């Protein structure tokens, strides 16, 4: 299976390609902003360099957040459009799950995303179960942690410094190898490419309708 992974939810614009019998090809420059302008040329260059036509892609994985609102929308829209054009499956990849996969030998693991405004998105990964993501304020976190069985747990992610747990090396964006692994492993029908926003958008249309 030929897989393409895309990550635009942070300050990098990253694409990865996995082909049977070859090493993964990954490009992940730090760009800050401008994902909409950079992404398509990067994908084109990666495929051309590998001698792959877009029509040969079997599955596309895209990081869906939580992360930058604008960057997430760019990546998801591009992945959906490309998947439609080349008749590939498309998988939505949670950034939290990707970080947990990168540290899959560590369980229990708390993945903490800094959602700003003194809030975190938290998810616990255990050997046999995974909690649903939850958004909490910094003040709410101690009580929430006190109700969890976290003996021997460690924490990873951009918000790891805000939890009183032993932390793994900080990950500000998902590892592309992990995203490629999940692209291959997850069922597109069970993991749709829908944005996972830290909170609803602030902007509203006239009448109070969310953008």
Describe this structure in words.
Helices cover 27% and strands 24% of the residues. The chain is of the alpha/beta class. The strands form three sheets. A five-stranded mixed sheet has the order 3-2-1-4-5, with helices on both faces. Strands 8-7-6-9 form a four-stranded mixed sheet, covered by helices on one side. Strands 10-11 form a two-stranded antiparallel sheet. Strand 7 and strand 8 form a beta hairpin. The protein is globular, with a radius of gyration of 18 Å.
Sheet/helix structural class? alpha/beta
Spell out the helices and strands N to C: EEEHEHEHEEEHEHEE
- Using the alpha-carbon principal axes, give the shape: globular
Percentage of residues in DSSP E strands? 15-25%
Distance between the termini: 37 Å
Helical content band: 25-40%
Can you list the strand order of the major beta sheet?
3-2-1-4-5
> Averaging pLDDT over every residue, what do you get?
93
**How much is the radius of gyration in Å?**
18 Å
Which consecutive residue ranges, at least 5 long each, have pLDDT under 50? none
Features:
11 strands; globular; 211 residues; 27% helix; alpha/beta; four-stranded mixed β-sheet; five-stranded mixed β-sheet
Topology:
Elements: E1 3-7, E2 14-18, E3 25-27, H1 35-50, E4 59-65, H2 69-86, E5 89-94, H3 95-102, E6 109-114, E7 119-125, E8 134-137, H4 141-146, E9 154-156, H5 176-185, E10 204-205, E11 209-210
Parallel strand pairs: 1-4, 4-5, 6-9
Antiparallel strand pairs: 1-2, 2-3, 6-7, 7-8, 10-11
Brief summary of the model shown:
The chain is of the alpha/beta class and 211 residues long.
